[in-house]
Amino acid sequence: MKIHTPMMLAGLLTVLLSSCTTTSAPTVVNMSPQKGDLARLHKSYVDQGYATMGMAEYKKTLEVTGILLGRSKNQRGNDVINVSAVGSDRSIARLLAATPEENAKMMALPLKRRITAVCTVGFASGAGLSLPLTDCRFE
Questions:
Q1: 121 with 55: CB under 8 angstroms?
Q2: Collapsed DSSP state (helix, strand, coil) of residue 55
């Protein structure tokens, strides 16, 4: 049986750690969200039978722009806003804020005006409701 001294183990550890370091530059990731066209997203949602799981955008974070048509509450009692595509007056998406601070911003937005938000395409399964956009952050 070979006995290793603390000095031998420290040397071995130094060799192992030095082989794990890298000198390459860190990778820079673009954190700006992809732009999503509300009318196209809604068409995909309808084509999927009013379900989001089959959409390529499901669970993806997108920047969307639309017209704020109204405010309401969801089944859980949370504030939501109803939004149309630009140039339309038909509600096709419902947006839910990410935080209480974003909810306050959302509820202060003026009706019948263009809004932009960064949201995640949320879950829906055949309910026939507007496209759910969750975790929204507002400009």
A1: yes
A2: coil
Cα separation, 8 vs 95, whole angstroms: 61
Whole-angstrom distance, CA of residue 98 vs CA of residue 101: 8
Q: What is the pLDDT along the chain (139 residues), one digit of tens a residue?
A: 455 554 444 444 343 334 444 444 444 444 688 999 999 999 999 999 999 999 999 999 999 999 999 999 998 999 999 999 999 999 999 999 999 999 999 999 999 999 999 999 999 998 777 999 999 999 8
Question: Residues 6 or more apart from 60 whose CB is under 8 A from it?
Answer: 34, 120, 121
Contact 139, 94 (CB under 8 A): no
- Residue of 85, 106, 93, 83 lying closest to 52 (CA atoms): 93
- Cα dist from 113 to 46, 68, 108, whole Å: 25, 6, 12
